[in-house]
Amino acid sequence: MSGEALAFWVLAVITLGSGVVVVTSHNIVHSAVALVPAFLGVTGLYVLLNAEFVAVIQVLIYAGAITVLILFVIMLTEGGTGLRVPQRNEQGAVGAAVALAMAALLSTVALRATWGIGTRTLVYTPGDIGQSFLGPNLLVFEGTSIVLLVSLIGAIIIARKED
Amino acid sequence: MVTLTHYLVLSAILFALGLFAVVTRRNGVAILMGIELMLNAANVNLVAFNKFTAPQALQGQIFALIVITLAACEAAVGLALVLAAYRSLETIYVDQINLMKW
Q: Same domain, yes or no, for A78 and A155?
């Protein structure tokens, strides 16, 4: 087994294992904290895929910001772990069936389809990504900045206390 | 040898986990966690396709970065909504938020 394959399987186990904890834990704080290894496992996958810049952004935004935000809201609303109330609705069996069907469908498609395989493997630098953002993808970049501004204002207005 | 199919199957399983959280969790914050898992699965797909099928292009990584940005927006607005719901209804369990349910 090559080093790349070993790294892939280790990262897959980390990601999916902590994903299962996120999804099934009865303690909502455990779920939130288990998000961190799931996101870090995905970060490792990005590094394996030569996407170092995306990996760094993933650590900064997901593992850093979003997890802390989620923990903040858990503490602000529930004030605890939520252990006394059931965390799952009565649709557990149906939900599991739907999720399994979705996984089977997507996996079947992925296993059966033949994808065109590119030959070259390039090194993607942050400079290339920046050039692309300010060149061919400028419109997407500007649109994203407007969405960021709108969601910032929206979040402030929604979460504000009304006097 | 790790191929594109490995990454696609992994992200399919991750997506299904997120979907399971979204349809079975009662807590609004836990539903948002499931959505984050699903967005991560989509991002793995985008970056894997970028590397394996179109290595000369950069669009997969660009798109993954935009999805990460939009996920941050979505988390901020979603958690603000959860806070607002908690303030007015005093619950974040979505099966108890049924004021508009017929």
A: no
